[in-house]
């Protein structure tokens, strides 16, 4: 078996601090990275733009929220509003003549500043009270976008992304360019989260998450690190919203960033596993792709005559199965899909010696 701890000797701090000290993990990461790079050559335009592209972008959104909810322990139910700020800001900045690369940074900073203002509520409240504060942000941003024509053009208006936008001199009209922009961004956010856990900032955020007043006793500046968490998460969410607008929708409307989208992103984080990087990938894939796969499966079974029901019933069967799967996952492993993957991995590390659990 290739998945073994034998031969892994931590004789140096550098080897012990590697992200993937086990060779099999490095092989898997290298294979997945290579698969992501050559995906435009392996898959058609429909799969690339309708499945892989939104999965990568919403994985970046889930990772951005994981930093806040999973690592810092601060609840946020208005993350779609953060992404909306980044999406609209990036379009207005590029229309003003700013290059797309700088517009991404500007959109992230604007989202971070506004998100930090509402995140300041975390300095006084927590739990459900903080949820209400972030919900207020969601509805306030929704109202502002709809009722301020200078931002969105009106309640029913569609704001098109500039067709002349480029990334590193490559036109964003190309599907392949948009895919690679999304891939580069999700890789950046992934590496950021993998490494932030190993820094003093990451350890301080975990201390604040576990018990903020105990963290204050040992010298952690709780106010500072809560604001850092909201600022960084909102910055990442704003850039993700800009990438979503330019690389997937290529136009933005107020309906694209409603409260339902916030709930979806929270579901990605929870189903994948709080604080889990691999869980964000699995959670985003499950929330986005499972309903589509289930719907196609039900339609196929109906055509074969194996599933006979009314049209109304057929339309609700995928949703019922989808809900049952979420409940089943949470009952089987409350820590999410990322923990299920970790359990399988740890089993393979010591197989066939089941008593040697790690």
What is the element layout, followed by pairings?
Layout: H1 13-16, H2 23-42, H3 45-71, H4 79-95, H5 100-119, H6 128-147, H7 149-152, E1 159-160, E2 166-167, E3 170-171, H8 175-196, H9 200-210, H10 212-217, H11 222-249, E4 251-252, H12 259-272, H13 277-304, H14 311-332, H15 337-350
Antiparallel strand pairs: 1-4, 2-3
Describe the structure.
By secondary structure, the protein is mainly α. The protein has two domains: 37-258, no CATH class; 276-358, no CATH class. The chain contains 15 helices and four strands. It has helices at residues 13-16, 23-42, 45-71, 79-95, 100-119, 128-147, 149-152, 175-196, 200-210, 212-217, 222-249, 259-272, 277-304, 311-332, 337-350; strands spanning 159-160, 166-167, 170-171, 251-252. It has a two-stranded antiparallel sheet. The longest helix is centred in the middle third of the chain and has 28 residues, at 222-249. It is globular and about 65 Å long.
Instruction: State the end-to-end CA separation.
Output: 18 Å
Report on the biggest sheet.
2 strands, antiparallel
Helix amount: over 70%
Oligomer: single chain
Number of helices: 15
Q: What structural class should be given to the helix and strand makeup?
A: mainly alpha
Strands, total number: 4
What is the residue-averaged pLDDT?
85
Q: Domain count, please report it.
A: 2
Summarize the structure.
This protein has about 350 residues and is mostly helical.
């Amino acid at each position: 078996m290739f998945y073994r701890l034998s031969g892994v000797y931590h004789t140096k701090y550098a080897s012990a601090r590697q992200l993937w000290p086990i060779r099999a993990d490095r092989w898997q990461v290298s294979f997945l990275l290579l698969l992501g790079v050559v995906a435009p050559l392996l898959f058609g335009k429909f799969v690339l733009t309708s499945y892989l592209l939104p999965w990568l972008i919403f994985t970046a959104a889930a990772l951005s929220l994981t930093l806040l909810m999973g690592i810092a322990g601060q609840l946020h139910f208005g993350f779609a509003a953060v992404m909306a700020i980044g999406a609209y800001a990036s379009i207005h900045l590029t229309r003003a003549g700013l290059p797309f690369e700088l517009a991404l940074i500007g959109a992230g900073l604007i989202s971070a500043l506004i998100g930090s203002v509402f995140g300041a509520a975390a300095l006084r409240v927590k739990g459900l009270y903080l949820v209400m504060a972030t919900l207020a942000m969601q509805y306030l941003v929704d109202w502002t976008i709809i009722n301020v024509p200078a931002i969105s053009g009106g309640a029913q208006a569609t704001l098109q992304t500039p067709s002349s936008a480029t990334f590193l001199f490559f036109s964003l009209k190309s599907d392949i360019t948009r895919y690679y922009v999304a891939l580069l961004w999700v890789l950046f956010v992934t590496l950021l989260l993998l490494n932030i856990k190993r820094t003093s900032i990451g350890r301080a955020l975990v201390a604040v998450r576990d018990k903020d007043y105990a963290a204050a006793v040992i010298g952690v500046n709780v106010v500072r690190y809560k604001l850092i968490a909201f600022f960084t998460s909102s910055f990442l969410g704003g850039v993700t919203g800009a990438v979503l607008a330019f690389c997937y929708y290529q136009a933005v409307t107020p309906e694209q960033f409603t409260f339902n989208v916030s709930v979806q992103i929270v579901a990605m984080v929870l189903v994948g596993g709080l604080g889990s990087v691999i869980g964000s990938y699995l959670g985003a894939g499950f929330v986005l792709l499972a309903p589509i796969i289930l719907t196609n499966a039900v339609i196929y079974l109906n055509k074969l005559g194996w599933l006979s029901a009314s049209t109304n019933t057929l339309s609700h069967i995928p949703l019922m199965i989808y809900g049952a799967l979420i409940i089943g996952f949470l009952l089987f492993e409350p820590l999410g899909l990322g923990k299920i993957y970790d359990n399988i991995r740890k089993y393979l590390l010591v197989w066939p010696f089941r008593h040697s659990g790690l």
